[in-house]
TrEMBL record:
Keyword Transit peptide attached: yes
Bias type Low complexity, positions: 201-211
Keywords of this entry: Transit peptide
Name of the featured protein: Folate-binding protein
Region annotated Disordered, chain positions: 189-211
UniProt cross-references to InterPro entries, sorted A to Z: TrmE/GcvT-like (IPR027266), YgfZ/GCV_T_CS (IPR017703), YgfZ/GcvT (IPR045179)
Length: 211
């Protein structure tokens, strides 16, 4: 499926996508030895590129929790191709360039960004009990109990669970609950929820994408 998707974006006839024998490996506390392209995705959580390694992560839940707290939007398979970059707050987290590159939907993305038209954003939600299954629907009282978002993934906490989710902004200030009836508390991720005003580029940036 991944190769099929990549073929849609090939611009040169002689280019052929292939599956690499490299893998993205995660480690806690320190980067893995002999790995390249090391990135500290969340405090103390390192991702690196290299030969696949099987590692026993005793603190696997802690790694997930750090990702939640950092607002890293991992997508479960059941939500592939559903959320937009805005819904995942990739523009607020610095994950999408507003000036460089040329990608599908760039003009629409830039327009929506500067007009503040994103109805859904990434939120951190907290609640009692075990983490809900990935993709669990979130219902909002402000929308008559209708679906207002979805859980991306979650981790256990001493008080219950914390999860990253997509959620309608106008529903976040009202009572929301999971599909199983548990009430949850939405909060902004560390990169915030502030929308740019119409026509205003990010601070220190020139207006308009580099198309």
């Amino acid at each position: 499926l991944a190769l099929k998707k990549l073929r849609m974006y090939i611009l040169r006839a002689k280019t052929r996508p292939a599956i690499s024998d490299l893998a993205v490996n995660a480690s806690m506390g320190a980067p893995l030895e002999g790995q390249e392209a090391v990135a500290e995705l969340a405090p103390g959580l390192f991702f690196s590129l290299g030969p696949a390694q099987v590692i026993d992560l005793e603190n696997g839940n802690e790694a997930l929790l750090r990702c939640v707290e950092a607002g890293c939007p991992w997508l479960p398979k059941q939500l592939y191709e559903q959320p937009t970059a805005h819904m995942l707050s990739l523009d607020l987290a610095g994950g999408v360039s507003l000036e460089k590159g040329c990608y599908v939907g760039q003009e629409i993305f830039i327009r929506a960004h500067h007009r503040g038209q994103a109805k859904k954003r990434a939120f951190i939600i907290e609640g009692p009990g075990d983490p809900p299954p990935d993709g669990t629907e979130i219902l909002a009282e402000a929308h008559g109990g209708q679906v207002a978002g979805n859980v991306l993934y979650g981790a256990r906490t001493p008080e219950g669970f914390a999860a990253l989710a997509t959620l309608r902004k106008d529903a976040a200030a009202q009572p929301v609950e999971l599909a199983d009836g548990r009430g949850v508390r939405p909060a902004a991720p560390p990169y915030g929820l502030l929308e740019p005003q119409f026509g205003q580029p990010p601070a220190g940036k020139a207006a308009g994408p580099g198309l």
